[in-house]
């Protein structure tokens, strides 16, 4: 039976990984190399990579030096584009801008030229940030840099070289959140977004018509009580199901609350289909969400924090758990512990690789008390270890 290990990959500072509401993911390339793009102890954007499934990691490479407040990444192959760019969008509080730079995983990790997505005037804690690439190649970014007053929706038609403002899907609000994704319409430059309206407690689907520069909204679920990103994030997550031309969504109906559900849908431009809840009627003390698709099997892996029996304490002493569906969300397997119970974690952030191949080794989480970013891995050894790989 496989053992578990929580391997320390990087040090960070405080709440910076998530208090800007940036959508971040772990990337796995076709050759199995893992990339983690993160905000380091100096508030810089950096990345590390692993060629052995997450057990050992390279020295960090700095993508941007500054004071970063939010980070979002996207990988070409998540948009069914046969290329290896990791697209990084980040906000920083010195120039009060949202910036862009790429990492070329297929050309010695060469860094692209940094460009400005949005030039702002002030930066504050909060807001949201998401970047994606359409199947046709256009890049899109939604940014809010100061928790309501500044930001918008931007497009690049030249691989990040220049950016132009587009119609914003929603009026900016303090605690709203958004995830941008490629769409599957006939126009391969159209995209989709999952939007969490904090004031309405509603999650909706937006479809962006690139040619017309318009958005169309359809409600996915009401009575969805949000939690601000400055407390913990994210409580909803998405993955692109390329094989079936749809996007997957998981979201908690409430956080750290009795009888909360971790709900799941698959979504196209024309239909929203809810499948079986990953967690039904939580006992309390649960939250956070991440979803990944094993591209070799089609199985769905959903990660979350807190045991379903309520025996853990959310935000101060929780572990990461996983459930797997092998039948497109109709049924879910048992709740499987991912982290090492020898350690008590105050986990407030969770991500995974939304598309991966191989063993389910890709649950990334943080420990706020120690300012650590850790990966939960499984391996056939007699004892699990907590391995320090340096900062």
What is the string of helix and strand elements?
EEEEEEEEEEEEEEEEEEEEEEEEEEEEEE
Oligomeric state as shown: single chain
Low confidence ranges: 381-391
Q: Could you give a short account of the major beta sheet?
A: 5 strands, antiparallel
Distance between the termini: 31 Å
Q: How many strands?
A: 30
Q: β content, as a range?
A: 35-45%
Shape: globular
Mean pLDDT: 89
What radius of gyration results from the CA coordinates? 19 Å
Tally of helical segments: 0
Please estimate the helix content. under 10%
The structural class is: mainly beta
Question: What is the structure about, briefly put?
Answer:
The protein has no helices and 30 strands.
Fold and architecture overview:
The protein is mostly beta strands and about 400 residues long. Helix content is about 0%, strand content about 45%. The protein is built from no helices and 30 strands. It has strands at about 5-10, 25-30, 35-40, 45-50, 60-65, 70-75, 85-90, 95-105, 110, 115-120, 130-135, 140-145, 150-155, 165, 175-180, 190-195, 200-210, 215-220, 235-240, 245-250, 260-265, 270-275, 285-295, 300-305, 320-325, 335, 350, 355, 365, 370-380. Strands 6, 7, 8, 9 and 10 form a 5-stranded antiparallel sheet that branches. A 5-stranded mixed sheet has the order 26-25-24-23-28, with no helix packed on it. β8 and β9 (about 110) form a beta hairpin.
SSE diagram, text form:
Blueprint (H helix, E strand, L loop, with lengths): L2 E9 L14 E3 L5 E6 L5 E6 L10 E4 L3 E8 L9 E8 L4 E8 L5 E2 L3 E5 L8 E6 L5 E6 L6 E6 L7 E3 L10 E6 L8 E7 L4 E8 L4 E8 L14 E6 L4 E7 L9 E6 L4 E3 L12 E8 L5 E6 L14 E6 L10 E2 L12 E3 L2 E2 L6 E5 L4 E8 L12
Parallel strand pairs: 23-28
Antiparallel strand pairs: 1-30, 2-3, 3-4, 4-5, 6-7, 7-8, 8-9, 8-10, 11-12, 12-13, 13-14, 15-16, 16-17, 17-18, 19-20, 20-21, 21-22, 23-24, 24-25, 25-26, 27-29, 29-30
């Amino acid at each position: 039976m496989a053992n578990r290990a929580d391997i320390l990959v990087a040090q960070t500072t405080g709440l910076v990984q998530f208090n800007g509401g940036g959508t971040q993911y772990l990337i796995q390339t076709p050759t199995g190399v893992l990339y983690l793009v993160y905000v380091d102890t100096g508030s810089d954007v950096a990345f590390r990579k692993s060629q052995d499934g997450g057990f050992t990691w390279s020295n960090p490479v700095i993508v941007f030096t500054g004071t970063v407040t939010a980070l979002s990444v996207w990988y070409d192959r998540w948009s069914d584009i046969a290329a290896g760019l990791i697209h990084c969008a980040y906000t920083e509080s010195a120039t009060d801008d949202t910036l862009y730079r790429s990492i070329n995983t297929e050309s010695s990790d060469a860094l692209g030229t940094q460009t400005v997505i949005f030039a702002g005037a002030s930066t504050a804690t909060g807001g949201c940030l998401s970047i994606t690439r359409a199947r046709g190649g256009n890049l899109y970014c939604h940014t809010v840099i100061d928790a309501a007053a500044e930001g918008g929706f931007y497009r690049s038609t030249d691989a990040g070289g220049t950016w132009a403002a587009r119609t914003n899907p929603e009026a900016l609000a303090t605690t709203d959140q958004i995830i941008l994704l490629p769409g599957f319409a006939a126009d391969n430059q159209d995209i989709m977004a999952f939007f969490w309206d904090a004031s309405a407690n509603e999650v909706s689907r937006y479809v962006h018509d690139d040619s017309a520069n318009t958005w169309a909204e359809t409600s996915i679920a009401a009575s969805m009580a949000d939690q601000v990103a400055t407390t913990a994030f994210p409580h909803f997550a998405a993955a692109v199901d390329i094989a079936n031309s749809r996007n997957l969504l998981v979201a908690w109906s409430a956080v750290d609350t009795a009888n909360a559900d971790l709900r799941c849908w698959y979504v196209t431009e024309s239909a929203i289909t809810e499948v079986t809840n990953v967690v039904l009627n939580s006992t309390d003390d649960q939250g956070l969400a991440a979803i990944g698709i094993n591209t070799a099997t089609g199985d769905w892996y959903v990660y979350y924090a807190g045991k379903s029996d309520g025996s853990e304490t959310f935000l101060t002493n929780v572990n990461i758990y996983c459930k797997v569906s092998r039948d497109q969300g109709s049924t879910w397997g048992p709740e499987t512990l991912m982290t090492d119970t020898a350690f008590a974690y105050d986990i407030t952030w969770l991500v995974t690789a939304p598309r991966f191949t191989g063993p389910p080794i890709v649950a990334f989480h943080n420990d706020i008390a120690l300012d650590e970013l850790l990966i939960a891995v499984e391996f056939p050894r007699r004892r699990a270890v907590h391995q320090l790989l340096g900062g």
